Amino acid sequence: MFTWFVNNKMKANPGKCHLLLSTQEEVSIQIANTTINNSNSQKLLGVVLDNKLKFDVHVGNICQKANRKLNALSRLTNYMELPKRRLLMNAFFKAQFNYCPVVWMFHSRSLNNKINRLHERCLRIIYNDKHSSFDALLEKDNSVSIHHNNIHSLAIEMYKVANGISPEIMKDIFQIRNNTNYNLRYTPTFVTGNILSVFNGSESASYLGPKIWEQIPNEIKVINSLAGFKREIRKWKPVNCPCRICKIFIPNLGFL
């Protein structure tokens, strides 16, 4: 394969090369007589990665797209019945938040509040309800917040790893603890690494995933099909989620 590559004289394309480093220093590399400078963010496979891995740029872009969809939706709902309005909400608004949520779900609390405001506005338009609270609107829609929906997506990835149907890279992120219990009703537990800091520790998928898996009821975890697990996990509402977004914050005191 390498001989074939050399014989065809393939060259690097500097126009498609980018440099992203977790530093504020000006760093550059040289590719085919072209200088590539480091940048603060770059788009990769549809996700905007920033040099601090906070995903604020990416989530901000999602909110802008969702807001535009919501403005268009508000002009059409007066001419549609409720089932069609809900269908459009799922297809055009909620779908904006369904791409790679496990990657970008560890964003700031302020962005989560922004997402909730957009979601609340959407539900008010769909149900023509100007007075109910956000929780009451979610109850009426029989749904959960975008963040809790992301928690469900994380739980699905944990199920795939636990049942050996996930890609190898996911098995490296979520490692199953060694156990000699061969009971078919046994649900494996995952290794939780040592926390070095909040950002690189508790605010990461490798830490939160096992914590979420422990909270899922056993009757859901032992379901023997992925389709059945997806169906049941969407009905489950996380309680006392350990992530930073769900914790209570008191000014001048901190998180509880």
Commentary on this structure:
- The chain is mainly α and 256 residues long.
- It has 3 domains: 2-39, no CATH class; 53-143, no CATH class; 149-236, no CATH class.
- Helices cover 46% and strands 9% of the residues.
- The chain has 12 helices and 7 strands.
- The chain has helices at 2-7, 56-74, 82-93, 101-104, 109-127, 134-141, 146-162, 168-173, 198-202, 205-215, 218-221, 226-233; strands at residues 19-20, 28-31, 34-39, 41-44, 47-50, 249-250, 254-255.
- The strands form 3 sheets. Strands 1-3-2 form a 3-stranded mixed beta sheet, with no helix packed on it.
- Strand 4 and strand 5 (47-50) form a beta hairpin.
- Helix 2 (56-74) runs parallel beside helix 5, helix 3 packs antiparallel against helix 5 and helix 7 packs antiparallel against helix 12 (226-233).
- The longest helix has 19 residues, at 56-74.
- The radius of gyration is 22 Å and the shape is globular.
- It starts with a helix and ends with a strand.
Task: Offer a quick outline of the entry.
Helices cover 46% and strands 9% of the residues.
Number of strands: 7
Low-confidence stretches: 1-6
**β-sheet strand percentage:** 5-15%
| Overall pLDDT level | 82
Topology as H/E string?
HEEEEEHHHHHHHHHHHEE
How big is the Rg? Answer: 22 Å
In helices, the fraction of residues equals 40-55%
Characterize the overall form. Answer: globular
Distance between the termini: 56 Å
Largest sheet: 3 strands, mixed
Q: Numbering strands along the chain, what is their spatial order in the largest sheet?
A: 1-3-2
The tally of domains stands at 3
Structural class based on helices, strands and sheet pairing: mainly alpha
Number of helices: 12
